[in-house]
Amino acid sequence: MYIQTKRPLNLTLLGVFYFLCFTGSASASSVHVSGFVRDGLTNEVLIGANIMETNNHTGTVTDNHGYFSIKVSTPCVLKVSYIGYANQLITVTSDSMVIIRLNSSVNKLSELTVTGQRENKSDIVRLTAKELMAVPTIGGKPDIMKALQLLPGVQSQSEGMSLMMVRGGDPGQNQYLLDNVPLIYVNHLGGFLSVFNPDMINSVDFYKGNFPAQHGGKLSSIVDITQREGDISKHQGSFSLGLTDAAFTFEGPLANKKMSYIITARKTLVDLFLAGMSLAVEENDYIISYGFYDINAKLNWKPDDKNSFSLNLYQGDDFLNFWSKPWKMNEEELNHTTQKWGNWLASARWNRLFGSRLYAENIVSYCRYQNMSAQQYKYDEEGVLTDAAFENRSSVSDFSMRSAWKYSLFKNWELNFGAQSSFLGYEPNYIYNSTATTPTVRDKYNSIEAAFYVDNKIQIGKGLQFQPSFRYVLFANDGTVFPGIEPRINLTWQATPLHSFNLNYMQVSQTSHLVFARDLILKKEIWLPATRFIPPQRSNQVSVTWNGSFAKGTYTTETNLYYKKMKHLAALKEGYENMYGITGIENKLETDGTGVAYGAEFTINKNTGKWKGSLSYSWQHATRQFAKINDGKAYEFDYNRPHSLILNINRELKNAWTMNVVWQLQSGIPYTPALGKQYLLNAENGQQNEIGFIFGQKNSGRMTPYHRLDLGFNHTITTKRGNKAVWTYSIYNAYAHVNPYSYYYDDDKLSRNGSRLDRPLQLYKLSLFGFIPSISYKVYFDYSKKPEKEKIKKEKKKYNWLYY
Amino acid sequence: MNKLVFALFSACILLSSCHALVEDEFPDFAKMPVLNAFLQADSIIQVQVCFTANLNDSTPAYASNAQVIIEGSNADSDTLQYTKKGWFISKLKAQVGVTYTCKVNIGGYKQVLAKTTIPDNSIIFDIEFTKVAALGNQGSIISSYEFTLPNYKTKTCYWHVRFVKPGYDYSYDSKTKEVVEYPTWTEKSIYMIPGKDSVLLTEPEPLTIFSNKKMDNDIYRVKFFIDSYSSVFQSYSDSYIEVRSVDESYYKYQKQLFLYYTATYHELGSSPQAYPLFTNVTNGLGIFTSFSTYRKSVKD
Lengths: 804, 300
Known about the structure:
Shape of chain A: globular
Mean pLDDT of chain A: 83
Largest sheet of chain B: 9 strands, mixed
Number of strands of chain B: 18
Low-confidence stretches of chain B: 1-9, 11-16
Distance between the termini of chain A: 109 Å
Radius of gyration of chain B: 22 Å
Largest interface: A-B, 89 and 86 residues
Number of helices of chain A: 5
Helix content of chain A: under 10%
Shape of chain B: globular
Structural class of chain B: mainly beta
Strand content of chain A: over 45%
Low-confidence stretches of chain A: 1-9, 17-28, 106-119
Oligomer: heterodimer
Order of helices and strands of chain B: HEEEEEEEEEEEEEEHEEEHE
Mean pLDDT of chain B: 84
Number of strands of chain A: 49
Strand content of chain B: 35-45%
């Protein structure tokens, strides 16, 4: 009986397999073409370039290595296109590997493209460096995170901050990948700027859902940043100066154009200003300095068309220093407090094209995040010099190996598979106090996370793409092992050449938890590994997408509906502000929280014409539920803004001016309102103390709506030396709207002009940023021009008499 | 120091920040009775009864016409007499080990009910003083006291540790138009550091309130820190360590009150939060709780 039932099942499976493998691929003269699409001049990879078979209008796009693989029926002509570049036609007759170099189009209008190039996928947005440059920011300098925050479904933690929340998720649920290597900390200036130097960026792929099986480890989003490789045609660079920082970039070829390099660096100037100011004020006993720097370097080597190697280095830190002025202290006395936080990352990558069907990427990387605060002082007490030191540190180190493979199994079946292994070291709270009688607190967690994945892309017929995939994760820490399989399914139906529908489901787990804890000076991010007390976070998300194109591609739309459920969330217990005494971290955390988020997102883009831009609207509902918060009842997520409308307009003006306008209108965030008042008793003496508030349910009130207009203008000029330069003028909050950062009740009876005010209790809002204008300047320089100039100078000198 | 750093660091941001009135009407909140009392062992029982108020009201009203009844588990019972400002006073003294139920009847409202059990004293011993236990910011001296506290493993106990000295306070009597001096205990701010101490790890800082939920032994060594001398505490020689054995509701109320104040303290970078006050009163709000006190002079 058992055997009888099994046989038809096997036959059915075989039938499905045959159908999936060979449907639409019956032609006997099919060939594989794979390769890379690059800029014809700089050799930089072109991400998202279209490769289309002209016979039947099917095709593919390049990935973030500029790689593509396609099986076509011969004879065939492939059309390769990329915005801003001239199209190229390639005739294919046999299996081949090609390097396609596109030349920049004469039509420079394309530089102002607002909307990202899109693969026919849902929940994914690709932003190019040019698009990032267009977004106005507080300091006048472009920033990835600020650009991402303009996308529907993405919200910032608070005004001006880089931390973002995607589809009702927490700030610690976003994966930031720098050339496929996770970076742990992403903020400078306490969140006003991200650590990603825009000069280094080629493109950004942003996933709000529909994660490829290759990616995992964070519940809410993947920010996959591909860095530039450096110009292989000439040595060039740039220097920029803005309110937030000064930055430079150098890039060029090496080793007879087999290699290229790019180095970028940024540093604040405000630290020197602050130190100078605090030095200059004689009454002030202290010298204060705050700033950041980051350095990014990449070296690429392409020994041949099949192999490429790269080395990537990143280091970035923020620092806050505080010294007592030595001349105001006794001899030999010292007082220095410091806080320093940031990442450093090193990675080595080898990419190889094994044939027209197989492509591989192998990465070895090391990344370390550290937030350290320390105090050192020498203090003279009754002739005895006391020397003391205090240090508090939180760190995470990640040594990883990754191997990712792409294989074209059949014409309509592409296979992505790979594995990774990470050795993670968590030290959430190291405390050392040289004068303390209690021992140094040092809890270390050494954990291992291993994963392997298989991702299938199966084309069924002309219009249907089925993408069943899974990721298997094994996490071991503190003697506990957490195995987990994460199934992901994606179904895309290309109903017409202009309209497609997508349905996807994904499950993701996250083996770390992020809490924000107070330190000596500033709050810091502390990462905690999953333990038997704090299991890994897990989420399930379903989303449906409709992509549409109208008026010959002038307008494109994307509509998403999603539902996400998260479990095993963790947060600091109410009332805990720091993680001092971390032993037994479960004692300080509320665990096993759940979160639910669902919503709808709509975007319409105008892609051509003088006026370009996008209009997006999103609606979202997000809640949290913890057993010991809000009496165990579900409450609205702290930063949930149900409605969000964002208008982004780009326009090229005369005389090399461009304009970017961003207007956003959002619901206010929730707050817990006071309903009434009551007398409180003082426990110390049992007497009536003061009047206290009676609060309603947690987050049951809502602040006033948030709206803001930002303007950005770029003016490209040519300097006297013939170099290109760009002036950027931006205005943040152009009409100075008082947007609420937080609410508070006050009946302060302050004296104004000598008269005492009798103000009733009122609700007030605190707003952070009013009207902020800023300016920045960026100049590009080209080494290859120098010899020419010098040559002309010499010629001029030689034939000086001609000019008389 | 931190305040100075914070102030300078935030200066640039705050230059453009501003405060504005929110044009919003306060909700109409239905009036409820509020019952408040901290019963102290061997002291006269006093209870305050008042009403909640709307946010627009200047002050909450006192329930002078309420009927307040105290019933003890030892069969003692008393109807309290109204004095002033919502206070009702009993003839009874609170006794250790007795559970007191307070019943408040006010016309038009359901009977308000609350109960508390007076905890037993905890006698401390082996006090040890360390003058320089640690150094604070800029090298200021931090002293510490340690003492031993007995633990009753069979029941859940709660304590509140204070550092006090006897003194006087003053109040103005509007009837006699005279300043009245009365004895009181002046408190010096102290704090505990959890370190690796699992007992304190379950408590939010900087409270010196803790339970025996994580105590494994019959005794527990308590250590608290004092930052530096003040004008009132020019020396510690005439001071006392006060250990209050408190009811569970006292413990919960004080912890929640700390969160309440923390949330209302406004600071850049903190998210807008609010915490409700703890109440153990049925059909009303407020706190009806108790404690017993043991003081030991540090001179001893």
